[in-house]
Amino acid sequence: MRILPATVEDAEALSDLQLDAWEEAYADLLPASVFAARRAARAARVERWHDIISAGSSANLLAWSPDGRLVGFSSTGPGRDSPDDTQRDGRPPLELPALELMALYVRATAYGSGVGFALLQAAIGAAEAYLWVLDGNERAIRFYERQGFRFNGAAKPDDVGLERRMVRRSTEPRGC
């Protein structure tokens, strides 16, 4: 497997991977109409990925199988959440890590092969980070928990369901 930064020439393959991975990961969580609408907007998605990659506003890594098939991707960048978001129980906001894992998707044919772990390591290593996960996506939740992420109580509605925030704090000693 090779992990390489995405280029604008990868926008079409990345769009197709994202569409496929969504259907594979969320088949039991979302209605078929959501997937159909996303597929109908494929051209706009390709253009959006082209613009995102061109702008360099996030780091986008692609995992390629030995036979040259795109099997996964990750996107990371500066956290997009407001630092003044209060917690659900009304307590003052928690300081969030500066780094956000915006996306990590792997084709179902590559589940359990180490592609997701390799992408996560290449994208954020052992850094503190946070992410949003779709409520009910148990496979992803278990994966992130194994990597040290924990729910911090924040949740937000999205067009496709409730998203819950997970945060990973460093367990390494600080200083020196």
TrEMBL record:
Residues 81-92 have a biased composition (Basic and acidic residues). Residues 1-167 form the N-acetyltransferase domain. Gene3D superfamilies: 3.40.630.30. Residues 73-93 are annotated as: Disordered. InterPro entries: Acyl_CoA_acyltransferase, Bact_Acetyltransf, GNAT_dom. Keywords: Acyltransferase, Transferase. SUPFAM superfamilies: Acyl-CoA N-acyltransferases (Nat) (SSF55729). This is GNAT family N-acetyltransferase. It comes from Nocardioides hwasunensis.
